[in-house]
Design a protein that fits this description.
The complex is a heterodimer of chains A (271) and B (313). By secondary structure, chain A is an all-alpha fold. Chain A has helices at 7-29, 32-36, 62-98, 100-114, 118-129, 133-160, 163-170, 175-211, 223-230, 239-266. The chains are: A mainly alpha (271), B mainly alpha (313).
Chain lengths: 271, 313
């Protein structure tokens, strides 16, 4: 636990805790209507006491929207990463554990998928399925799977050659049992580290998709959507871009810092 | 020779798999293409007509065969929104994107390598912190946010660069570069972080090696030791990471070209996706994946040229 207490680790943990609490508690205290409540007398008003972060082109309070957006962004990012782990884990585990022909075939497929930029894959899937929250999750989840499968496969390959796996095998334990009982627990640290780092990418991907209109749809509050709306009013209301932009930055920064420290602790070889 | 032949076979196989994935993603997923094009409110007869004319009623295998056959014979079909041959559109837009890709990678390397070297030379001092913090900042903001900042500062406030559009290089080459600069700078900032880290860590490893101590002991200037001896050995892994980032870059140009109304491949892909132009989606997605794959191959081969210790095998 002590090893989390580096400057980087502390900043990361604090950032993530604050954002996590905002995302969970925010929507409980703020009624959903507040996010879309328009104040036409105060359109594009700069940050003030009444509207701490200012308002957007429809007079909606940016503080409230950025808080509600935290929920959207985190929900989508976490679900997408969980999905990519659920899909990538068996793929990588089987490929790395059995090796040989299975590995060749599976990894050829994964390598092919890796030729597709993740954002392009996510955009295409979202466009084909029709953009909404659920499909954004699927799009990002599928797009991130090949990357996770590759990492997990490498780890499984390493663990599968360990003496304790050999011992289990020679004592007649079945392959599936070895994979679940011996290989899986030993690759989990790497999966957790990659999951954390993927979360940062998923937040960015969600913002990118929504920014392009192929993710979360208005009038829902999403950081990417808010940045998109700010495009046409940069000169007169730069805060409409800065507020959601910095929200994304804080979150991604927190995840990256935490991920770095986590990696140093859980996966010392990569140092 | 066997190596090159094997590699070539593998490229062809991967290209084939890329066409399969592209086709699968755009076809097998639920979602009716005709409805995507015409909207959910359109009348059933018009939908049926469109399905028929697009050949959507044929078995998937037939559709796939037709697509591949067309591509091999140079007939890539027509774009539904631009009403133009797709091959012509692609050729037109590829130049614009090539400029941005090269420019942003150059900017990223030009910033990341000195920054990484600087951090490695002053390891664990304030320079190291500055370097790693700025790299972390670069990667933590979405690149389109950097794009917006660039527009605000360099286009609107200072007025140094145009904030949108693209000029054909044959018309006004300087104009082309000026239009490409801001999107490339924004992309470069996003790419920089990883490259800085990689440069720092490989440089740190190499600076602690014996031959560096020998070079210093020989009385060579610090400049020669670092830039000629150490960096020459550290650049390989950095180039590899740069190559791997081509994939990421091709995802990012979609957002960036949209933001800057820069009419390249990314912009074309986005128009295709937004308007559900299926033939154009398939073509752009395939071309981008193929280019990423071939670039990675080129980097692999380049690596062999840069680092004579690596033998083909």
């Amino acid at each position: 636990m002590k090893r989390f207490l580096t400057t980087k680790g502390l900043i990361g943990i604090i950032l993530l805790t604050v954002i996590g609490l905002i995302a969970i508690i925010g929507p409980m205290v703020i009624p959903a209507e507040a996010g879309t409540a328009m104040d036409m007398t105060a359109r594009r008003s700069p940050p003030s006491l009444k509207h701490l972060f200012g308002t957007d082109q429809l007079g909606r309070d940016l503080l409230i929207r950025v808080i509600l957006g935290a929920r959207t962004s985190l929900q989508i990012a976490v679900s997408a990463v969980v999905m990519s782990i659920v899909l990538g884990l068996p793929l990588g585990l089987i490929s790395g554990y059995f090796g040989g022909r299975i590995d060749n075939v599976l990894m050829r497929l994964v390598d092919t998928l890796l030729a597709f930029p993740a954002l392009l894959l996510a955009l295409t899937i979202s466009a084909v399925l029709g953009p909404n929250v659920q499909n954004t999750i699927i799009a990002i989840g599928v797009a991130f799977t090949p990357f996770l499968a590759r990492i997990i496969r490498g780890e499984a390959l390493r663990v599968a050659q360990m003496p304790y796996v050999e011992a289990a095998r020679s004592s007649g334990t079945t392959d599936s049992m070895i994979m679940v009982r011996h290989v899986l627990p030993n690759i989990l640290p790497a999966v957790i580290v990659q999951g954390t780092i993927s979360l940062a990418f998923a937040i960015l991907a969600e913002a990118g998709l929504s920014f392009l209109g192929l993710g979360t749809q208005p009038p829902a509050a999403s950081w990417g959507l808010m940045i998109q709306a700010s495009r046409d009013q940069l000169d007169i209301a730069p805060w409409t871009a800065l507020v959601p932009g910095l929200a994304v930055a804080r979150t991604v920064l927190g995840l990256n810092m935490f991920g770095d420290v986590l990696r140093d602790i859980l996966d010392p070889r990569s140092k | 020779m066997t190596y090159i032949l094997n590699r070539l076979l593998s490229v062809i196989l991967t290209l084939f798999l890329i066409t399969l994935v592209t086709f699968a993603v755009t076809n097998i997923l639920p979602g009716d293409v005709a409805m995507m094009i015409m909207g959910t409110q359109s009348n059933p007869e018009a939908l049926a007509g469109l399905r028929e004319s697009l050949g959507l009623n044929d078995p998937l295998l037939v559709q796939y065969g037709r697509w591949i056959g067309g591509m091999l014979s140079g007939d890539w079909g027509n774009s539904l929104i631009f009403k133009k041959p797709i091959a012509e559109l692609l050729a037109q837009k590829a130049v614009a994107s090539a400029i941005i890709v090269v420019m942003s990678m150059t900017i990223a390397l030009a910033m990341a390598v000195p920054l990484g070297v600087w951090a490695a030379v002053h390891r664990d001092k304030w320079q190291d912190t500055v370097s790693s913090t700025s790299a972390l900042m670069g990667v933590s903001l979405p690149d389109f946010f950097w794009g917006i900042v660039m527009i605000l500062v360099f286009a609107r406030w200072l007025g140094w660069f145009p904030s949108s559009g693209f000029v054909e290089p044959s018309v006004d080459f300087m104009g082309t570069l000026r239009h490409a600069f801001l999107p490339s700078l924004a992309l470069g900032l996003g790419l920089m972080a990883h490259l800085t880290r990689m440069t720092r860590s490989t440089m740190t490893g190499i600076l602690s090696q014996e031959f560096i101590r020998v070079a210093r002991a020989k009385g060579l200037s610090e400049r020669t030791v670092i830039w000629r001896y150490a960096l020459a050995n550290a650049i390989g892994p950095v180039i590899t990471i740069a190559g791997l980032q081509i994939g990421y870059l091709f995802g990012s140009i979609i957002v960036m070209e949209f933001l800057f109304s820069y009419t390249g491949m990314g912009w074309l892909t986005y128009q295709a996706l937004l308007n559900r132009d299926l033939p154009l989606i398939q073509a752009t997605v395939f071309v981008i994946a193929a280019v990423v794959m071939l670039t990675n191959l080129a980097v692999d081969l380049l690596y062999v040229v840069i680092d004579p210790r690596i033998k083909l095998g």
